[in-house]
Amino acid sequence: HRYEGESVPNFTITDSNNNTTSAIENCLSYATSKQALADYISLLSHINPNHIRPVIAFGGSYGGMLASWIRMLYPGSVAGSIASSAPIWGLPLTNFNIDGAYRVISRA
What we know:
Helices cover 32% and strands 15% of the residues. By secondary structure, it is of the alpha+beta class. The strands form two sheets. It has a two-stranded antiparallel sheet with strand order 1-2. The protein has a two-stranded parallel sheet with strand order 3-4. The radius of gyration is 19 Å and the shape is flat.
């Protein structure tokens, strides 16, 4: 999501066993979906500052999740979204079993 060029954090992390790890190796643990959405909105504000052109977000799988979330969280910036193969029912608290293959195989 973020951490490109000079925006990569330059520090180390020390765990309880006194082992140090470069933050660069674990930088994805600091990048969140919410940050990615904010980055996309920042980009859109530069290329379409007055919302002159409608923007449609789209993506598949994780990108589909981002497309649906950006439409939900920033409806004034995104006119619509297409979320293909987005595992929206696989989120915590949805109580939806998305592993249909496991159910079929376990019955065989």
